Give the backbone structure.
Amino acid sequence: MADQNVPPRGPWEDRGWTPGQHPTPDEYRDVHRSTPYVQYQGQVDPGQPHAGYATQPAPRGPQWVGPEGLGRQSFHQPAGTGLPQLDDGDEPGGRVGRRRALAAIGGTAAVVAGGAALAMNSSVRGFFGGDDAVAGDATGTTVTDGTAARPSGQQASTVRTYTEQNESYMGSRAGAALKKNAPTGGRTFSGPAAAAAETPVTVKTVLAKDPVRHLASRATFGASPKTLADIRRMGIDGWIRWQLDPEKIAPSPAELKLAELPSLKLSPVQLREQRDQLNDKGVQPEREMVDATIARQIWSERQLFEVMVDFWNDFLHVAADFDGGEVYRNSFDRDVVRANALGSYPDMLVAANKHPALLLYLSQNDSRKDAINENLARENLELYSVGVDGGYTEKDVRQAAMLQTGRGVQDGRYVFRADQHYLGKVKILGFSHANASADPKKADAVIDSYLRYIALHPSTAQYVARSLATRFVSDTPPKSLVDRLAKTYTVNKGMVKPLLMTLFSSSEFWAAVGQKVRRPMEYLIATYRTLNVRPEASRGFKSDGGRPAFARGLRQVHDKLRELGQYPMGQPTPDGYPDVYVAWTSAGTMVNGWNEAADLLNGYRTEFTYTSAENLVAKPPATAGAYVDALAQRLVHQKLSAKEKALILGVAGVPAGAKVDATFNGAVTAVARAILASPQHHLR
């Protein structure tokens, strides 16, 4: 585990500071400018996009879980079974080069995915804040709170606390390479099926130019045989309409089994009241929420809904592990994000700003008219609406923070404290209000009006549109699509379903085959889905009388995702995870994912049920080359290139024409894992 006294890499290097030195208090304040935030664990894997800060007070325990496990539940492979790990040497007796062949396949994946494999560090993010007394009219050019040095007239982008993550990463050489292969221009068709039929795929990609496979790769957490069959049976338009009405989709058996997670349905008040009893039982509500999210991503039929839940959890981000998350974060997921994921973003932003999770996460509960805390006001503008380049100034941040005073949490519930609310005229961007009423309902309603104003601001429309296009289309989405989505957002007043229909009816979406790379979480979830892992315990599971098998298995997947560096709601800072390939280029993470795929093929997590590797193909062909083709069709839903096929045959150590049995002469698990290491499984 990293030395907690070593600050993360970032702005320190710009000041000539190097790890091992300690900044002076003035230097520290100059970089961070945020007394409500404390240093988190410093040096993390440079291949992971983790920032270095978390909300105060300090977390109750270590939050990063590294490859050593750090107390995680684990399983042990039986001696003498399974697939050699990637660092094993070549086997004697003819089956040569498994390590080299698999590395070559993975190298192909990296090259095809982005043109370069660069280990990227996220920049350190600072936060602005303070406890300054404020009174009177704050709309003028003069700062009235005694802090003459405040940059109140400057554009926020000149004193930004965050870079726009995706654009920052894509400014690299690898990003430039990706841009050259991205689709450009486009138009909207009468519907998704028409757009799919009329759009040629001209980008270079190893993925099959099959619109059904493309839709399944982007609108779900990974294509599976059932998903592909559903789309072909319903048609593209019918399947999308089905997915856009998730309330009518029956819960899957795995979703019904979520009743085995005892804290999932409890309210914040109940969680507060039962905290001691839950602790005695070892129940961690914030982790059970993540466990449940993982289960839904793998097994729910409401796949597009789950994809959008994940999107909004990154866009309007509250970390699962913040201090207070054990009480409030599950309710935020249920009552804010899931309640509005396919509904209205303005409604989501208003609900979020009245929820204890966000109010505590960004220290709004500590903000009073005589001691302003700017954290929530800043992030509402910078991250949750118009964006750092959306046109607001530092004066706008200050006035928004003043307007939002009075909002807080008491006894586990949202409360508006009228005696702590600043009264006086405010002007934020184009929103202005006298803000003169001491009536709590009227004062609270003014804040809601402001939040709806910024939620529908033209800059917010562009920001949401660009983020959505980056998630579904390309790391470098075409401006034509972003502008079209922004117009739809504005015309429909922030409603999500029209946005998605515009997206799926656009040629840019269907032209972007293979232009997205799965992040670590997406890779692992897609692996579970394509292998048809089932939520029931296998016959080899041995209960110890503790937690049910399903709950234990989910926690193990959760812990594995922590090792890989990405898990639902896992980013500690309010900016959420980056959504571009160059932020996730870590060879160690890639290898860890491949080895997990091998564990699934071997059925080592006995908490779940698996199809054995030799039974993945119902009637295996008798020759090695044909068997590889059949396995590829089953696992990645298309054939491999001749070069990739040759590499995989090298893993088995046989020529294409060799006779093989259902076990691929003992190599079927190795062959299947190699296919899951191919670009066809890494790309989506």
User: Anything to note?
Assistant: Confidence is low (pLDDT under 50) at residues 1-96, 113-153. Residues 177 and 262 are 48 Å apart (CA to CA).
